[in-house]
Amino acid sequence: MEDNDTVLVLGASGGIGGELSRQLRDIGWAVRALRRTPRAASVSENGMTWLTGDALNRRDVAAAADGCSVIVHAVNPPGYRHWSELVLPMLDNTIAAATRSGATILLPGTIYNYGPDAFPMVTEESPQHPVTRKGAIRVEMERRLREYARNGGRVLIVRTGDFFGPKARSNWFSQGLVRPGRVVRKVLSPGVPGVGHQWAYLPDVARTMARLLVRREELASFSTFQMAGHWDPDGSLMTGAIRRVVARRTGVEPRVSDFPWWLLTLASPFVATFREMQEMRYLWRVPIRMDNARLEAVLGDEPHTPLDEAVEATLRELGCLDARASAGWRPSGPVSLE
């Protein structure tokens, strides 16, 4: 198809999908977003076109993608419910729509694909031998996307560490380290002391993806990139930044406590989110760092917001710095681990 700057974002109501939608809009892209909420067939809001449809409905996705040069596949089942049953059918619908429209597919990647044989320094060519159900599904997603690329399509995958940032909801920062909607008095630390962990600030991730999309025609038909993000070498960098920001804004420095993994163990049979968090515990027990040399070779540099600035913006939006600001924040799922 003729190249254009029209993009369909699946998952535009979520963290990375929403942030990328706004950034692409701001640099002149025509952004379409699909949502299940019944509304008018086409509604213009905040400079984006919102279409009513379901990522699980192949016709809805195909109709929304008609005329688009890019499809951003940033959609996931809410609250991890029925994840294993729904994720692959949703991706198949995206691939079918992209095949019809000739669109590039962008997938926000994860480190779930990798197992211990790839640690501690992961590159784009590291072996993918996952040790979890979600990791196996992620590997299968990439296999299907690679097949799409072999058949003439284009695929772009950007892998990062754990998300945090304004508008990011289902992530370790907002569901594990702090309590959204309350001024921080205690910060939970999920990792083993001395073990490194990698974080990714959502606006930096979206900015990286947007820059890569602009250059998509220069890239290989199946291109994978990794972001270095914010590397916490011993597990104290992120908790320390939260404590500094809160102390500066409120005058009270929060204490740090161990994350209550025992509680997740007890509650996992009843709470899907806790069950999935428990399965990912291995990522907090060993250092995992992502090499971004390939990304820097293409872009020249990686977008990087200073950590304290990123943490302050995140805490402010979560209602964790000012009790008066917390009234409008409503959690989207179980977040209290105390």
TrEMBL record:
Domain of life: Bacteria
Domain NAD-dependent epimerase/dehydratase: 7-220
GO terms under cellular component: cytoplasm
GO molecular function, one term: aldehyde dehydrogenase (NAD+) activity
A Pfam family annotated for this UniProt entry: Epimerase
InterPro entries: Epimerase_deHydtase (IPR001509), NAD(P)-bd_dom_sf (IPR036291), NAD(P)-dependent_oxidoreduct (IPR051783)
Protein name in UniProt: NAD-dependent epimerase/dehydratase domain-containing protein
Organism field: Telmatospirillum siberiense
Highest classification ranks of the organism: Bacteria, Pseudomonadati, Pseudomonadota, Alphaproteobacteria, Rhodospirillales
